[in-house]
Amino acid sequence: MQWRCFGQAEQRPGSPLRISFRELLAHHRGRPLSTWSTDRFRSKPDLSGFQGGLIPSFPMTDEPWVISSFLARETKTFRFMIPFQPGFLNPVVAARMTATLQRAIGGRALYNVITGGGGPAQLWWGDSAGHDDRYTRTTEFLDVVRDVWNGGPFSYQGKFYQVENAGLPDPLSLEEFPEIYFSGSSDAALASASKHADHYLTWLEPFDALRKKFRRVKERTEVLGRKIKCAVRVDIVARPTEEEAWTEVRRGFEQIDKATLENFFGNGAGDSVGASRQRANRPTTINSYRDLIIEPNVWSGFSLLHGGQTQGIVGSYQ
């Protein structure tokens, strides 16, 4: 089980999702990460039953590679799921950088490969590639990273990457290759995931839709002679009783301003198939937080409280 570390800027006033990554880091403008912050981080994840955590990577957050290197000194078993978009790193450099990090922190790095959802958010990063091209680029990137890691010499001629006689030297090539968590709901995404992913990661959806999606990716992976595990990235509001959990959600909902609620009904500016699947579960009108309950204990208003996915789980600790 991996913990999603929230960035402070992702949360809105009144959100019941209270533990933020930036809170744990105690990062103040113009000041370095403090000893107090690492003490707080050290006291939480390793003692809470989590195997690791997804480090946030948004325009408003710190850089996850750097943060993971810093915090790895403060934990012994916590694994760092580092999100990145392949288009922004050369694959040979990425392999070298990751192997070095694995060597430094005892093999505790994981990949969360993000291909991107298009639109203005993608342009913020300087990326204007189309939807299917982004997934082709991701597949080529992982092709190169895997084979370079094996030591080489390795050559590759793809649409996006060309490599001649590359390979990691020992001892870097002897480090454990990071497990790959991969997200995406389109056919192009599933083609890439089936070739490279160890874990297919999706946002929460209605359970029948999840079963169909998992079946599709497993069938495509088995054709290639591989196995893949499926996982759900889900936000949770849990309290001692279900009633208390829904009370927290209601309080958060009541703090939402009119502009945020109006934006919630937008069609989105990107080309993400996963995001469009999330939007498909929204009601046409919202008068109460109850209007966003789409299944027992599943609430589709989480993106009103913070950035990211729409659906999440609400209930008791049981």
Structure, explained:
This protein is α/β, with parallel strands linked by helices and 318 residues long. It is 38% helix and 17% strand. The protein has helices at 21-25, 35-43, 64-72, 91-105, 119-124, 131-149, 187-196, 207-223, 242-254, 258-264, 273-279, 302-305, and strands at residues 2-4, 52-54, 79-84, 109-113, 154-157, 162-166, 180-183, 199-203, 229-233, 235-239, 293-295, 298-299, 312-316. Strands 1-2-3-4-7-8-9 form a 7-stranded parallel beta sheet. A 4-stranded mixed beta sheet has the order 10-13-12-11, with helices on one face. A two-stranded antiparallel sheet has the order 5-6. Strand 2 (52-54), helix 3 (64-72) and strand 3 (79-84) form a beta-alpha-beta unit. The protein is globular, with a radius of gyration of 20 Å. Mean pLDDT is 82; it is low at 6-11 and 18-37.
